[in-house]
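The authors assume throughout that readers already know how a fold can be written as discrete tokens. For illustration, here is how one protein appears when written out as sequence plus structure tokens.
>
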Amino acid sequence: MKEKYDIIGIDYNTTRKADPYLFSRLLFHLDPNSKETYLDIGCGTGNYTNEFAKKGYQFIGIDPSYKMLEKAKAKNDTITWKIGKAEKIDLPNESINGIIASLTLHHWTDLKQGFSELNRILKPNGKIVVFTATPSQMNGYWLNHYFPKMLEDSKNQMPSYEVIEDTLKINNLEIEITEKYFIQPDLRDLFLYSGKHNPKLYFDPKVQQGISSFSSLANTEEVEKGLKILKQDIVSGNIQRIIKKYENTDGDYLFMVIKKSKNNL
């Protein structure tokens, strides 16, 4: 069976590039050591994995999509790339010093099993850095105004903060730090809410193709209708009123730094 990103990842690297600021925060929170080994779970085409490697850090990239890993290998064949999923990781117990999981939780089929595996391979003092969005945060996206069904479906597949926290507890893991992320105007990694400050981005078919909500969840009729209204609102200036209506302080995405619970050490 083909993985979702075997199909939608054809031009992935055209619009999904490692963003310097996001990478700097992943680097800060992971705080890696060049003598240790780290994992990028759900690495995709390895954009962020490769950035860590450029700085001399040893990384393994795991993804379920052969197509995505082919692109990753073409980018850097010195990194160990492995086919796999969070729920079943072909690595020994306590063999990894740290893990990054960027915009991947919503693609896992079993959150509990996924974190169980991460806990199994993580060394006692290691950490997991997750970058995700919660349904609560996504309620604050102005995209809800134009694509309500698509956003509802997107929110339904995103685990809430409470679900993540409870699942971590079951697996003897805990959230140590959280950091809100607000979309920056110069964002280079064009994921779902990347057009927050630049609505015209969503008219680009390649941008749509690189966003799973548009390319695999969305109803074509709703997208066409939503884009038509969005275009009218951009021309009339009404888009500014819509954007202002959705302004909030919840953050657009969230970094979570996760460690083993003390009773698990």
